[in-house]
Specification:
- This protein has 222 residues and is an all-alpha fold.
- Helix content is 77%, strand content 0%.
- Helix 4 packs across helix 5 and helix 5 runs antiparallel to helix 6.
Length: 222
């Protein structure tokens, strides 16, 4: 393996890119920023009389190895992934809490005998689960904003906050799927009730979006 003094700018960027995990857009922005910084440093060395190749090698050596650079960049990626997860979770939680009951209003079975107590408990718990998700997501956004205002990259308690938010999201998704399956078992008409079908499509898209955001954070924070 070649030493640090033999590494050029693009090679160092590829090495760093291979080490980093997190949101693709943010990672691309960080790599672009480092490219500009390395290019500016190399240009300064060229103006000092070094050859282009030697100027690049000197600039790369000055900034450090990929192993030295990666931890700070990875922290920033994890913080960005948590912000993205929090924002997405907050928006979706508010929609699900406010619109969840709309799938049932006016249905043919709404005036019939009440469902079992277990079903009613699960249904009532859904709002509480998503309110918890909204609360954790709001804390994540506020903490991220405060960290940025304070000049910090990492969100204080971000690891625990992210794990709590991810766990609450998983509970909300599992509970939602279970509630839908139980509804279909109790009322065959649920499968042909348009608001229910629209709700299933919207909820499925929301769950998929949340799963991607949670996976991005887990990968970046690992």
């Amino acid at each position: 393996m070649r030493g640090c003094d033999d590494v050029r700018v693009e090679q160092r960027l590829r090495e760093l890119d291979d080490r980093l995990r997190g949101p693709a857009r943010l990672k691309a922005e960080l790599i672009a920023e480092l490219r500009h910084a390395l290019t500016d440093a190399a240009e300064a060395y060229r103006q000092g009389g070094l050859s282009p190749a030697e100027a690049e090698r000197r600039a790369v050596a000055e900034f450090g190895t990929a192993a030295q650079l990666a931890p700070a960049y990875q922290v920033e990626l994890a913080a960005g992934a948590l912000r993205g997860l929090s924002l997405r979770a907050l928006a979706i939680a508010l929609v699900l809490v406010s619109a969840g009951d709309l799938t049932w209003r006016g249905s043919s079975w709404s005036d019939g005998p009440p469902p079992p107590q277990g079903y009613q408990l699960l249904s009532a718990s859904m709002n509480w689960i998503w309110l918890v998700v909204a609360g954790l997501a709001a804390v994540g956004l506020v903490a991220g904003f405060a960290a940025a205002r304070g000049g910090r990259v990492a969100v204080p308690g971000g690891q625990l906050l992210g794990l709590g938010l991810t766990g609450a999201l998983a509970l909300g998704v599992v509970s939602g799927v279970a509630l839908f399956a139980w509804s279909v078992e109790l009322w065959d008409a649920a499968l042909t009730w348009p608001p229910m079908m629209i709700g299933v499509v919207v909820a499925s898209a929301a769950y998929f979006s949340l799963a991607r955001a949670a996976r991005s954070w887990l990968t970046a924070a690992r």
